[in-house]
Design goal:
The protein is mostly helical. It is 69% helix and 0% strand. It has four helices and no strands. The longest helix has 14 residues, at 50-63. The protein is globular, with a radius of gyration of 11 Å.
């Protein structure tokens, strides 16, 4: 978990629980659509809308 936070911070983003969950799901899934990421996050303690997931994905993509 610490490595995920560090990677997100190195990209210039805040390491929010939502971004950590999205980034973690993407690492597990590889290339996936928002619905797949939502399904991967579904069992975590966070409940997120698809819009929140999309925003998280976009911020991670734009940060590189």
């Amino acid at each position: 978990m610490l490595l995920l936070k560090e990677k997100i911070k190195e990209a210039g983003l805040k390491a929010t629980p939502q971004r950590i969950a999205v980034y973690s799901a993407m690492r597990k899934l590889g290339h996936a659509c928002v619905d797949n990421v939502a399904e991967g996050i579904k069992h975590s303690i966070l409940s997120m809308t698809n819009a929140t997931i999309e925003n998280g994905l976009e911020s991670i993509i734009h940060a590189g």
